[in-house]
């Protein structure tokens, strides 16, 4: 693990290694857990068209569910919100179809993940994914029962649980350039998949300020811009590139998109401004006609539910510097 391997070599072990450099790790405060809403209808689908997901199915790994505390109030909430086996299977199929198309696609290589164990337990934060100590091909997704109990309003339970599961499932199946990929890009790919699975939460907002690799939906929407600009399959090619080589920023992006990432990010900023300008123009034209609808769109924060900062919890071994996994 860690050595460069040509594409024809055997599969690298797809350990999801937490980012090596804190430079790339977005602080948890940048990715607050979704604010609870009082929405009574399912969340809207992403503003960009959801990529059509093919109907081919991939072979599944061994799937396990471990509930560490059945007396925790979050446990029955989880069990009634989603059928556990289907939830895991569906999130795997969505992830694999978006990152690898089909089991027979020759241009992408599915990692040999052998098992995924979903562990529901009381812990701070939302969720994280890790390889087991003995074998990185066995993955564990730790999902907070406290988060499930306290931070998701009843109408959003299924959608949010599936969204978090899908994000974490990406970490069970994505490549990380032998541990050299920036954490923000790893998290961006995970949220790009979540977006395309139609599971983006209502608080997600496309914006183009700050750094391209701030992670999560911030980077996810940037990846979506690149998909639209360079053609469907860009993120799949990006993931495949992370399978075969170590990450060297300038070379990586120039080979993938023909331009360094800073320029691509600047292009995205311009395109975003234009799009925003157009939307505002349209908004002005429509002013006065749909005031009622606009009022309905405003999210109301429920102050009785604690707002948790940070999409991910800290893995058990760390103390002061939360790692994104
Ligand atoms: Zn993540």
TrEMBL record:
Organism: Hymenoscyphus albidus
Domain of life the protein comes from: Eukaryota
Biased composition (Low complexity): 48-57
UniProt cross-references to Pfam families, sorted A to Z: BSP (PF04450)
Compositionally biased spans, kind Polar residues: 316-325
Residues covered by region (Disordered): 1-58, 275-325
InterPro entries: Uncharacterised_BSP
Membrane-spanning parts: none
Name recorded for this polypeptide: BSP-domain-containing protein
Residue ranges with Pro residues bias: 7-17, 25-47
Segments of skewed composition (Basic and acidic residues): 275-289
